[in-house]
Amino acid sequence: MVKKPVFLKHKELPSWLPFALAGLGAFLYLIQALIYAHTTGSSLDEGSYLIKGLYYLRGVYEPFEPYGPLTNKAPFAFLIPGFAEYLFGAGLRTGRYFSIFLGLLTLLGVWITARRFAGNWIAAGTVWVFALSQMIVRLHARAVSEVIVACILAWICVLVLDERRPLWQIILASILAAFAVLTRQNMILILPLLVLYVFWQHGKQKGGWALAAGGIVFLAVHAYYWPRIMIIWAPWLPENLTPFLNDFRLPDDVIPIWDPSIDFWNRMNAFFQGVRYHFIPLLGSVFALILWPPRRDWKSDSAFRAAVFLAVSYFVLFIMHAWASLASQYESYSCVFCFSNYLTFFDPLGLLFFVVAFHAAWNRHPARAVQILAVFLVVALSTGIGFSLFEHVGDGLLNLPVPRMREGQFLPDSAKLVDVLKYGFDLQLAQIKRLVSSFLGLAAGLAALVVAFSLWRRNKTARYSLALVNSYLVMGLVLSPVLNLGENSIHCKEDLILANERLGGYLASIIPPDSLVYWDGGNAFTPMVYVPHARIFPPQINDGYTYHFGGDPDTLYRFSHWNGELDAEWRNAADVFIIEAKRYSNWKDFLDPREFQEYPKPADAPSCDEGAELRIFHRLP
After folding, report:
1. Bridge partners of residue 615, in order along the sequence
2. Of the residues 262, 284, 309, which one is the last residue of a structural domain?
């Protein structure tokens, strides 16, 4: 028997090493987050959270106020970033740095809980899961609600999981659970699930306190914003059963301009994007579930109960968000490619479920059906992950030489792979790319089976499926840069935080106080954060996503939506027009030089996209 080298023996390694590795992972996360914060263009959601939060904190508008900004998310989604801006100054820098801070708190919370259940080394590994997942890092570096909820969930786990948690931590965790729901209403089930877990793990007394604390906060905020807060809940409830909520729903006679038709293949693409961007939290949870051992094999009751809470919470939220994004037509349109972003909300739950199950009760002798299921999942998921990478199939693969055949006979010379598939099978370029990338994913899955078999042959103390699952997850972690293709690249070379600050300063200097501004400057309303003295048309914050054909103008405006009649009215009333350069062709006829004068073009643009420059016009007296 070959002895392991001394430096590989866990007990011989310095006790400080896992802490150093965790710190190094957090530092790598921070560096990446700062780079992404300064080089990623702002999105509609980010601009919405920043400007609405600022307006709400300064008292310009109230959440759910008629004719005000659209409060389509629970109020804390806007109030939390708005509070940061109120304290540290309005702008993209504040919003993004605050989000990075919350992201680091998320890492810390996950690390603390993982260390409690699985020790220092596995806790350090959880930090590296985040550090190597560029999609998650990039999203954490923007002022969006995903990182807020993820941070809250991570610290709920710190406060309540395991035995002998003090009462004040139980109460605080319950309040945080209410905050999660009040940040995004799609977290509604986390509060009752947490209360049930507290009753189960910590007893009736603490369970009662958890119910009271979370319930009081949840109801108090609803009472404060009652009844307009029902706007966020009415779309969830069947209209035929809740006609009394129709006053909080848009009328049926309005037709949204944004109503894309997403076919099955693109929905599948979105699903497998989510799988590869969240490989360890998602697949670690799936494999932990199928390798769930008998109750007697768990190391402790507290680990078992924590795993049950984490598993139920994670998969319930996963199913809810998969349905809302991939299968339904929620809120009149399906945000199909939001799916991977949605998974970021509850990554901490999935990762911690995997950690607890892996350390406390990994089933070393699963049934044959489980082993077959593990093999099937590895092959199927690898193929799907490859499918979702089709956009990255380049000429190098498409132009690979392949043998030419006719009537079962090889012909001299060779042909390009793309030509064989195009002319031999009558496939379009997109279909060819999907086929090639799916085949590469399948090949990677088969390679994983071979690697696992080789490892298993060396040590047959456990079933093959265990070697397969462990090696597959390790491969996924090591190959994270490949899994995160599309999110690990730098979008812009320019410092976009600085560019937005300069652009915002320029807008603030040229737009007179109390001017009424018409915005057609792009999806992201972010530059207007720097112009607090201007007045706006609130529905325009959400751009075309709130624009409708038909409908009563006053009713739409009351719900912070708009249509052609309101658009014409606003064009006639506005003092200043901010137009994105690539949209200017739609404005040439309206912006008659006899009635409007253009300000000097700003030196900075809000993003590096072609045509993102702004043109600003003001109405002549």
Report:
1. 579
2. 262
